[in-house]
Design goal:
single chain, Nucleotidyltransferase, domain 5, four-stranded mixed sheet
Length: about 120
């Protein structure tokens, strides 16, 4: 029973992800900010889809930070500083199929506080 529930959750997330990716596209001036969260760690990267390169990224695992609201705010501040150094002030937020709630919302709010427009 648990496997069928998890399959359904994964299927629904994949559908949301495909729907979002069809609408969101990043350039060098306006990169796509893609996030990934596991049960333990949180990752984010700013991507230029034209050239297929990552402009800036943060990795919660390498930083030793968990995927909770307090640690995600630290990651957002770090990413905001690295984007500002590269002259990027606005990004397109790709929540990657995750609901805009909890750590995803905390990350977005902290990134706004760091001076990046979403």
């Amino acid at each position: 029973m648990l496997k069928s529930i998890q399959r359904k959750k994964n299927k629904l997330r994949a559908q949301r992800k495909a729907r979002i990716r069809g609408k969101v596209f990043g350039t060098a001036e306006l990169p796509r900010l893609s996030i990934f969260k596991s049960n333990r760690y949180f990752y984010a990267q700013a991507i230029d889809d034209n050239s297929g390169t990552t402009l800036a990224s943060v990795d919660g695992q390498k930083a030793g930070l968990k995927a909770n609201r307090e640690d995600v705010k630290i990651l957002a501040k770090t990413l905001g500083e690295s984007l500002s150094q590269k002259g990027i002030t606005t990004v397109v937020f790709d929540r990657n199929g995750y609901l805009y709630h909890g750590v995803v919302a905390s990350f977005a709010d902290a990134l706004r506080d760091a001076g990046i427009k979403l």
